[in-house]
């Protein structure tokens, strides 16, 4: 097992090992997504899994597979967040010492959540590849067992238990899977190749970290030369694992790349319409399905929602962007005469349109406006593009000149 890709029997064995720690996640339906994609859409909600992501499956299987001598040495891993939380949780339950190396830029929520499970947390490097290099150096000094987030057959077998659960509920036409290092894609692909062989398995990657498409094009596990850059930090590995790619190249024919705007829109869609909180990586399968909806029309499709551990500050930016794009949040500046009643007159006009003022700044000291004037910057909530356009038209009809609009 240590040097080979996991077979279906090993994935079944993994399910038995981790049964006491994880729970099978539901396949959820959404009429909204059915209509938007034109398919019969199911969500495999691993964001509802323990530790908030699928990673607990592989981590728990790896910990359960340690020999007594290995367990005594402790384990070490590099992680942007989810693998670290999962390994720390599984290690604590088994009484194994754990060290997690995370990038200094990791989401604070993920750092705090990882620490809460009790491991030693070391912050090193500006991104996942740098943290991984630091973890490997530390492993050499401490003799701890390195638990790779994806390039490990025990980890891949654990992730493959998701494929078993999917196949036992239905035989889908296609499954879309978020892909970073390839462990999740490889595990599910291996399971479905045996239990639902007609299912097309599609990897969805972040455009800012396209190691899957690069590897498929090269025919070999490849790394990204340029710096990775994506809000889907769980996919920003910069490389695909050799072991998972040996499986992927047999069972996966294509990759779909989605950019940060598409990922952000998918996060917001799931939050607002489906009431599901996902992180960037977790939303990529939905973003990919929306991108290739024409190819999925009329099919039975499963989207793997891989995790829900999103940084709240990032979520706030995603919400703001989504509202702005939908015409439900707009910002603009205009100049007023600085005399009593002028600001009230402006606010009354805005209120009469049914718009809501979210924030307002009134500045009379700027050097680029006349003495006796004031510049007002407003952030306004509207009901959509039509309402927004109506508001701006009413302001212009009232004699106001919009100095700048965002």
What are its keywords?
406 residues, alpha/beta, Rossmann fold, Alpha-Beta Plaits, 3 domains, six-stranded mixed beta sheet, four-stranded parallel beta sheet, 17 helices, 14 strands, elongated
Output mean pLDDT: 93
Q: What is the count of distinct domains?
A: 3
Span of the ends, CA to CA: 56 Å
Rg on CA atoms, Å: 25 Å
The third-level CATH topology of the largest domain is Rossmann fold
The backbone outline, from C-alpha atoms, is elongated
Which structural class should the secondary elements be placed in? alpha/beta
The DSSP helix count reads: 17
Please give the number of β-strands. Answer: 14
Strand percentage, roughly?
15-25%
